[in-house]
Request: fold
Amino acid sequence: MQNIRWFLKTIFTPVTIMVVPHSRAKPFRFLFPCAGILLSVLMFLLGTAYVLTVSVRTMEYYMMREKLSRISSRLQELNATMDSLKLAEEQFRKLFSLNSKKEVLETFKIEDAGSLDMEALKKQIDEKMESVAEIRKYVSAQKDIYLSTPSVWPVQGLISSGYGYREHPKFGDQKFHSGVDIIVPQGTPVKATADGIVSYSGSSEGSGNTVVIEHGHGFSTAYAHNLRNLVRVGQRVKREDVIAITGSTGISTGPHVHYEIWKNGRHVNPMAYLARK
Reply:
């Protein structure tokens, strides 16, 4: 009992704190019980511990948020790459399910694809995407060549005069015939034999109404003796677009289409291309 009284008396015993200013002012004295001082020190220590704990947790929060942001970004890149690989797979499944080169080239379409930048997969996926890009580039170039190459008949009819030397049907002398003459009824639609741009649409004394189309990759075609041309210079046309109406204008013995193919500035035998149909 006496120990408890002594302890209570001790903690409530006032302590004098004197403040001595560096001037002529009188010193100040403050009386504080020991318990008050101990409580103040304890509150200071608890407050400091709390502030440190909050600071550590705040730092951990920002570190976790940054890490989550990086993971989220990589997941988005992964999703984009998976979509790209699925697109490529669909494209090549479609390509290789076709039965002929013509079907492949006519149905092939170029669409954009992405890439992945993850450390563990980047090298492998980049290699795969480069291979896919090379294949797509090659097929795209082959399709462009295919569309530029004459491969259909301008009209469906009988060939009355082939490519090479012949006896002129009107003058009777031997001359080189640089195309083929296809007999059809007057008024039959004349179709472009490949994609291209019209470079000439007009009339001449010998060939009558004539259309010339530039197809690219060295190819050009000519369609002569038309009753009427339906296209203008600079107009883009697709394979099998109607470009003229057959007739017998110019030096001609009857309705027909004089059809020529030029390759790299020199006329070639159209039969090699007409036979493709």
Notes: The helical segments are 2-11, 34-97, 101-107, 122-148, 271-274.
